[in-house]
Design goal:
By secondary structure, this protein is of the alpha/beta class. It has 43 helices and 62 strands. Helices cover about 30% and strands about 20% of the residues.
Length: about 1500
Amino acid sequence: MADRECPLEAVPLPAEVRESLAELELELSEGDITQKGYEKKRAKLLARYIPLIQGVDPSLQAENRIPGPSQTMTTVPKQQKPRPTNSRDERFRSDVHTEAVQAALAKYKERKMPMPSKRRSVLVHSSVETYTPPADLHSAPPDVTTGLVEHSHCERPQLASVRGVPRGYSGSILETAGGVPVNSRVSSKIQQLLNTLKRPKRPPLKEFFVDDFEELLEVQQPDPNQPKPEGSQMVVLKGEPLALGTPWPPSLLAALQRWGTTQPKAPCLTALDTTGKAVYTLTYGKLWSRSLKLAYTLLNKLTSKNEPLLKPGDRVALVFPNSDPVMFMVAFYGCLLAELVPVPIEVPLTRKDAGSQQVGFLLGSCGVTLALTTDACQKGLPKAQTGEVATFKGWPPLAWLVVDGKHLTKPPKDWHPLAQDMGAETAYIEYKTSKEGSTVGVTVSHASLLAQCRALTQACGYSEAETLTNVLDFKRDAGLWHGVLTSVMNRMHVISIPYALMKVNPLSWIQKVCSYKARAALVKSRDMHWSLLAQRGQRDVSLSSLRMLIVADGANPWSISSCDAFLNVFQSRGLRPEVICPCASSPEALTVAIRRPPDLGGPPPRKAVLSMNGLSYGVIRVDTEEKLSVLTVQDVGQVMPGANVCVVKVEGTPYLCKTDEVGEICVNSSATGAGYYGLLGITKNIFETIPVTAGGVPVSDGPFTRTGLLGFVGPDNLVFVVGKLDGLMVVGVRRHNADDIVATALAVEPMKFVYRGRIAVFSVTVLHDDRIVLVAEQRPDASEEDSFQWMSRVLQAIDSIHQVGVYCLALVPANTLPKAPLGGIHISETKQRFLEGMLHPCNVLMCPHTCVTNLPKPRQKQPEVGPASMIVGNLVAGKRIAQASGRELAHLEDSDQARKFLFLPDVLQWRAHTTPDHPLFLLLNAKGTVTSTATCIQLHKKAERVAAALMEKARVSAGDHVALVYPPGVDLIAAFYGCLYCGCVPVTVRPPHPQNLATTLPTVKMIVEVSKSACVLTTQAIMRLLKSKEAAAAVDVRTWPTILDTDDIPKKKVASIFRPPSPDVLAYLDFSVSTTGILAGVKMSHAATSALCRSIKLQCELYPSRQIAICLDPYCGLGFALWCLCSVYSGHQSVLVPPLELESNVSLWLSAVSQYKARVTFCSYSVMEMCTKGLGAQTGVLRMKGVNLSCVRTCMVVAEERPRIALTQSFSKLFKDLGLPARAVSTTFGCRVNVAICLQGTAGPDPTTVYVDMRALRHDRVRLVERGSPHSLPLTESGKILPGVKVIIAHTETKGPLGDSHLGEIWVSSPHNATGYYTVYGEESLHADHFSARLSFGDTQTIWARTGYLGFLRRTELTDASGERHDALYVVGSLDETLELRGMRYHPIDIETSVIRAHRSIAECAVFTWTNLLVVVVELDGLEQDALDLVALVTNVVLEEHHLVVGVVVIVDPGVIPINSRGEKQRMHLRDGFLADQLDPIYVAYNM
């Protein structure tokens, strides 16, 4: 072997040089010095002895240190000549893993990953701001998903002024070809993310499995080249027989009685305080007398209702701190003497300890009613008001008994405990926490207890009166078996080192070994590691008295490096190499194997260097050439005396493994646990396994116990453990061990950034596979950038050594991970917090793109139904063509009135003449008082005055456009009719918000300019605002057209009222901004206007005697029509409630409905949401005030979107108490091309709800499913189709008609369709066919308007007014808003609904795509430091429910997502704001 230590063989080094070298090695392995520093110092130390090493290139030396391929399993024969201490076999140097990791990282030439950005307030260090990764901005970003181009965005113009981009940017400066603002940091990071993602990580996978529908999830197929076990079948390994000649005591209690009476002065246990002083030594006499006293007290002095509280066989909890082994020992033996079953548990420090609830569950299921504790401990427990010990969450009610001497009663002379040798009866219950976090109790019988003590005595060669130093927890596991049970059997003296002392002085155990001349010591690798860090100043300790140093967690992957480093340093202090004895144990099987020193007949120790890749397939391959990904393991010795051991397959039938296969170790012996208390089913699986040969023949008569340890049997019948079942993570088809991944993370120079012992690795199941999560505690002084660097290096190291991706890497602040009782991390609790979003990380890196390789196949578009199948008459997949219509207008009774009412100005004059004093409008203010009213004659006169002013002052002529900028009210309505009276075309515009001029005024200015308005009518207050200094900062105020205020215009009549030459003349323009941020005005002719009013009148049965309440904005769409047009047409009275007034009085609208007994009322989603949120708790108060909603027949939500079922249902439920009929609430549907397509109205069947399969919907198919079935999405019809309206569903691309079961675009034909766009700002050519579309086949004559919304029709079982079957129209969403990802069509609202459900702190959410990356923006309603909890939850839920990988998660403050007046999210505004860096996000996570 090319061993760099060769020259040292010749030159023996002085002891102090050897010691300094050992310290150097340690510093390097700890990460205290760099590799370079190490090389330098080492060369300096050795320079005097080895001149030739000077000339060697340090990098070559480093090369040499990676183990060579020569030896595979190395044994150390005893007769070898003693070698210098420092030249131990290089191949197994503990820092080999560190080197492998460093080499692996060197392979990656620092791949730049986009660093997440944090807001300064969340940052501790602000180095992020400066860190803008370089990125090539000028190329169009690549499509990283499937090569499918996304159509929906390339058509959308970037509308600067409407979407709130700061003034002064013209489109060309701001954006590149892809519509990306160039000046932004965000876009460069996304570019970088795309560049990283472009590099293919894993070969694409070919095979798929079917997930109960055609969503095909990829399944990893076994790699044909994967290693397979080739060895012969293993044989059961038999331990040496239990010695027969030895005079064993018949039971442990017999041994206790014997020593207590014959050797009362012999020391049994010495307890130390935190300074390391011996506070108390318990002798065998005292242990015996005090245990008797306790047994007597327990059986005779505790009563409840005159019955003894306890009877033999009852379970008793032992709650003792780690610092009081003496009281614990007395309590444990006292219980055994009283034939009670002790259940030792940890001291609960707070009411919410990690895992404490589970412990309570264990106590409850064991029927524990009494807890024993010490006086000091009882005083420290949390108390209730009464002074009693508080009941902990999930715990049964307990009585607490303090077992200090003064509370116990001395038994009478003639009293003797009954305790005989009870064989199969349970002696004690040891708790164990499973991978999922549930706590179970392993029962150990008296017979097993005795057998375990005998086996340990024989295996460890314990003899009478030996001294043992115990650092482990004496309440369970090896600490209990050696330090409390076996020690008493052999009258040993145990020195118990409390955890608190180890924390203060990690060397304490070594000092005690030295001062008590202990022959045996029981430690964990952590204790060895700690003592190494502390030993530098200590020269005078000696470990020569030790004959056995038992390493209880010898099965851990990092145990070997601790053992090696420990020996390296302490060999010079008398520690003999053969003294180190790793052992393996499990709660179920107790001690499984332990290494024996040669004088007890143990074979020489061995180590194996195994290929990590082989292990991940469960195969043992001694690694020869692949130096990077290896696992070095040490043996854990031989099988216990009297035990048989075999290795079986982990899953399925317990077949014996082959000799070169990793499996679960099983033990058959009289010394294993008996079962899980009260859990018969799993007990059978674990404690009564019958291993079988490949032919199915059982290997023995007796049952085996599964240990939960994964391993194999090596040469010399030595047992090797390579992992635990609890830490097993199966990713795809490969198995990885959590501990191995921790070891790799530790090797990435961690000491600078994270705490060594505070790293947790576990897996979570997302999308049918285990995903690896790594959580570490970050050092407070590590900067943001350092941590991020470290995280990316860990990812690369794990990727290259384990060939597996980490799904999520999170860093949390120091000391925030839940602790296990004696240090360490409580893994299951950490996992629980991660999944509940309660981990509160300060840094997160998610890598779903890398890890998730089993996404469904992208969809390939199918050829659609063509004309041929139409002619044949069989529509593929659908029963019939999807078309429907409202009632026919021709047959309705009001047709002669309709002819008279063709022009609204005529109608108003006619009403002013026939019913002058009939009230049409009432306007309410926030207090609910009527601020203005208008009767027919008043409105007519006001309109005349406006018309006169327009003609005289503004000199407008017929056909001119006039902008009306008014607050909601009667003035607006009067101004509207005033315009019609003089032949002008009114354009209603929402006035600017005085507090927010900068963003609202540009939109006003834009509408005025785009509509080419010749004049602006408004109020005095708004006129002042439009011309103010503040306005001048936002827009150019010099270019306003004439502005007239109509507050004090003189009373004048117009000579003649304008009468349009034909009904097709333009009546008004309806301007609005769509959710995608496009400003457009539609043209409404007089004919369409009166047709619209007539349809609404018929549907809602509106007559002059009716009153309706309207809580809507009056500026566009159906809201405008209901405010300004319908009352004049139908003569009913409208109670107008401006939605803005609800901000100061939420109950205004409902009180008005109740007060005016409105049968019909209209509102918007924002109003409904305000009422639901604001009045939720006040229904009682409203009832007291006399609010009664039983008058309402229909309450309609005016919307241009899919009905929000959750909101309407909660509204109905909430106000049912105020008499709101269950069936009253419904929605309407309208859009640009036709403001009212559906409206529930008063007659006709109730709206129906169907459940559709969300996955089919992505493929544009409608598949009905049962309520509650997986992936179901409830959809409610949007009200009844209005009279005179025809609807058909057409294919979005081919424009052919579709069948019932297809999702397509809703096309509408009706007399009240708008006649066209006045302008679509910037998109005139694109939308020419919106109003005059024809089907490509079928009925090619009818002219349709395309709504731009996707939906479907369904014929229901209900009948409508005409006796026909009723056709329901379901709106699914806006076509412009849909996201095309992986060939499928997603509706943002579906993804958003999932995301909002993911965590209670998510107040609102919006999604959009950018170059096929899905960006999710969530509003955080909580503390900023909890923001990062959301990243993983959002990513998980979108993967699980939508099979999409989230590219960027942006966390922002509440209120950042822009919402328009209809309560719809403006996702494109948001997208522009994000790309231009205007959102001021709390955190932006770029998922890798």
